[in-house]
Structure formats: C-alpha cells, structure tokens
Amino acid sequence: MLNRISHQFALSKQGAKNYLQASCLSFINTIVEMLPISFFLLFVSDMLSFISTGKPFKSIYFYLAFGLLIFILIALSNYFSYTSLYVATYTESAASRIRLAEKLRTLPLSFYSRKDVSELSNIVLNDVADLEGAFSHALPQINGIIAFLCVAGIGLTLTHWPLAIVSFIVVPLSFLVYKLSFYYEQKAHKDYFSLLTEQSEEFQETIEKVKEIRFLNQKQTTKKALYALLEKQEKTHIKTEMATAISQGLISGILQSGMGLVILFGGYWWLQDELSLFQLFVFLLATSRIYSVIIELYEKLSMVRYVRIRIDRINQLYQESVQEGETTPVFPHYDVQVQHLAFGYHPEKPVIEGINFKAKEGQVTALVGPSGSGKTTVFKLLSRLYDYTEGSITIGNENIQAIDTEYLFTKIAIVFQDVTLFNTTIKENIRIGRNNATDEEVLQAAKLAQCDEFALKSPAGYETLIGENGSRLSGGERQRISIARAFLKNAPIVLLDETSSALDSENELAVQTALSALIKQKTVIVIAHRLRTIETASHIIVLKDGKIAEQGTKEELLANNQLFKRMYEYEVKTFDTPIVK
Ligand SMILES: Nc1ncnc2c1ncn2[C@@H]1O[C@H](COP(=O)(O)OP(=O)(O)OP(=O)(O)O)[C@@H](O)[C@H]1O
Q1: Ranges for the ABC transporter domain (predicted)?
Q2: Band (365; pLDDT cuts 50, 70, 90)
C-alpha cells in the first residue's frame, strides 16, 4: 500500500507513511469537531426527557466537565493534525527537491538537449510547490472528509434509514453540478494559462527587442498588441472566476435545499410517530454539518484538480534512465580508441557510422570535414554528452560507458567554441575549471592562457565583473578564459572545438599560444574548422556524411588527392597568410 501511495503521489516511503498518518488524523479531527454538536444533543435529550417524564437535568458539573473534555480534545486533535500535516508536507517537499536535484545530476547530458530548461525548473520549483500546497491544504483532508462522510452516513442510516436517504439525495445532484462546472472551468483555466504564457513571451520579446522596436518605429504597434493581449487575458480571467462563483453558489444552494427536505420529511415522520423529536434534532444538526463538509470537500477537490498533471511530470522525471558506469580505473595510458562507432540522435536515422581511429597520448588528432559531417557529434560521444549506440570508445583500454561519469569528467577538459561564462569576476570564472583551486593556481592558469593581457587592463583586474554571460568580453578573451579553465583542470585528455569565427590577428595569436601550451603531453583531439591551424597534427581524420572519408598525416592526405586536398586548396585560396603554430 505504501508503495502504491508513494508512486501515485510521487512521494518517498517516509512521505507516503506521513500522508497516511495525516489522513487518519484529519479524519479524527473532523469527527472531534462534531463533539460540540453531541454536547448540544445531549442537552436537548436531557431537556426532552425532563419535559416528557420530569426526570431532572444532569448536574452542571457534568456539563462543565464534558465541555472541558471537548475543548481539550479539539485542541489536541487540531494540534496533532496540523503539526503532523505541516511537518510532513514541508519535510517531504524539501526531500522531493533534493531527490529531483539528485536525479537531474545523474541524468545524461543528452537529456538536457531534449528538455527545455524552463520546463525543468518549473518541475523542481512550481510542481513541487503545487504538490506542497495540495498536501498541506487538501489531500489528507479530502481522505479525512470522505471517511467522515462514510461514518456519518452509516450513523444516520442506523438512526432512521428513510430520512438518511432523503438527506443524501441532494449530494449526487451537487456532484453532477460540480463535475459539469469542472469541465467548463478546466477549459477556461487552460485558455487563461495559455494566454498568460503568450503574454509573458510577448513581454520578454518586447524587452529583448527594445532597440529594434525603437529604431524601426514600432512602438505603437507593439503597444497595441500588448494591450489587446492584456484585455483578452483580463476577460478570460473574469470568465474563469465567474464560472467558479456560479458553480459554488449552485452547489451550496442545492445542498442547503437538502435541509428543507429533512425538515419536511422528518417533520412528517415525526408527526406519524415514526421518528422521535430527538432523532429529528440529530438529523438537522448532522446534515447541516455534513453539507458544509461536502462544500469543503468540493473546494479541496478543486484545489487538487491539476495535481495529477504535476505528479505525472515529476514521476516521468524520476523514471528517466540514468547514465550507467561505476568504475574508477587507474588508466595505464590515455590513448583514446574509437571502434566501429555508430550513433543517431533519432535511432532510425544514424548520423555517424563505422568510425575507427586512435588518438594517442602526447599527440594531436584532428577531426576535419564539411559542415554537418559529424565532427561535433563524435566529440559529444567522446565526452559522454551522449551515449553511442554501436561500437566502443576506450580510454587506456577501459570502455568509457563502464566508467563513473563524475570520474570520467575529471579526466577530460573541453574547450568549446561557445564558452559559457557566469556573471561574476574573471577570477571566479576561471576557478570553475577546478573549484578547490587556490588563488595562486587560478592566476597561474590565467597567465598560461594569456589572460593577463586583458585582465590586468580591466578596471578591477581579475576581480572585474564580466557581465551576463561575459557580455563585456571579446570573443578571444572569452576563449582564453575557457582555456584557463582547462589549464586549471589539468586533465590528461583535451577536447578542443576550435573557433570558426574570425578573431583579430592579435587575439588569434594569443589564443593559439595559449592552446599550444595547454596541449603539451596530453591526448588532444581537436575539431579544426580551418586547416591551417592543424599543420602539426600527428593524425588527421576527414569526415564526410558521418563516415571517415580518409585519414593520415597532412602529407599523406595531400598525396591522396581526395577531399582533404580539395578543402586545403580551397582554404589556401581564401586566406593569404597562414598562422601556423
Ligand atoms: N541535437 C541534434 N538533434 C538532431 N540532429 C542533430 C543534432 N545535432 C546535430 N544533428 C545533426 O547531426 C549531423 C551532424 O552534425 P554535427 O554537428 O556533428 O556536424 P559538424 O560536422 O560538427 O558540423 P559543423 O562543422 O557545422 O559544426 C547534422 O546533420 C546535424 O543536423
């Protein structure tokens, strides 16, 4: 049962236990809240027996003691029910966020290319918060109310079953109205939320494109479009609220009319001597409480109607398969061997096939080829951003899919074309390469990566803030930070995605100098967009349409007179002065 609850509500085992406990306490709480009614009924029964038989009232001390007992029971049940509920809910939602974060940490990076980042943050923040709300304010109470209604129904049936049927006759009708309004409200809510999304996208686009809007004199058009959207959203919102208010009014009206039926039929049966006056009182008080509890039940059900979608999304995330690999081998060497490698982003459409090559330690292996030939894909497989479907990749004879990913990542440094930078100082951006590096180590890596030249000219030196994603830095400076990170990491394998964008010659020289220092004595695999930068590569692999077209040294490939030679000649024609390091 615990397993079922835990899966059904995306809870931990402890969370499922707490949920059961909170439901039981909520049931007890609902029952205990009926005690003042029993106090009143006891008094009425006393009074009726005094009128009919002259039997004296119970002593005042009895009523005082009974009243005090009720007070203590209500206080205790409220205390235990609320503390158990809130402690359970907040502990569970903190645990859920940690579990989700842990899951996200272990998912392959390919997962992130399938998922939108805003969708993931929505799951971790909003979905968990919505579930938190449902658990603290609705779900256990719903269980408690349903259990209470069953007990109350049995009690009334045993007291006088025909009147029990009369009192419950309005419940299915109110449920029908609730269901009908639910479908209508659901549609209205959907419209409202899609308008909200549209509106936030529109606002975001307007802010992002504020320069173009001004230059192209689009202020009025943009303003009109935004106003129209806001007006539409306001109307839909009012419609949604109206629908809720009307249905709530209708439900309440239907249930209250049940009281009229109880008085009518109860009064008739009392006159027929089929029901005592006391029983009639019991019915009147119990049904008025039952109807208000049913209204509360509908309110709670409305609160949790979208929870199923949230739970499904959270469960889907938990079910994502994690990347395999547990070993932390000591590598005898860092040769990278690729054999019969095949992979497709979509299983039915292979992007690379039959790739075989060996990148030796201490050498530079270059991947070249036309755009779309699969160079970046091979990189993604080498660094386990994606897992290959066929063949193998080994480092020092160990298959990378058997290696613990965290451990593997300590052995590989990647210098990407698109450097991601954080809105902090130059120094802290470099430290990302190795979090526990000392200031001296960071500065030394920065120096080797030729960062001194621009960092020391910045207003606060290495403490200068570089803006959102390094907006205050040039392309070459960004790349040098990325190289400094790789220096700091000092991994034995370096994957280098060379820039294809033109840097000014001073920057290009600085980047090339930094790279030459970085790759010494390592296994280096480089994607070269410009062939002049790989003149000294020991081994060149030419890719075409996801397959190896040819491979060898530069001289061998030129002698081959195939694709590489054509690419080389084309580039020599395009550039005048090759920069060869
Ligand atoms: N995430 C992805 N999902 C689906 N297809 C992809 C994805 N990334 C790349 N591809 C496809 O895989 C093929 C190889 O792309 P890849 O990026 O590896 O080529 P490339 O040689 O690095 O190109 P470039 O030199 O232009 O960077 C291309 O047809 C590309 O459209």
Answers
A1: 336-570
A2: very high
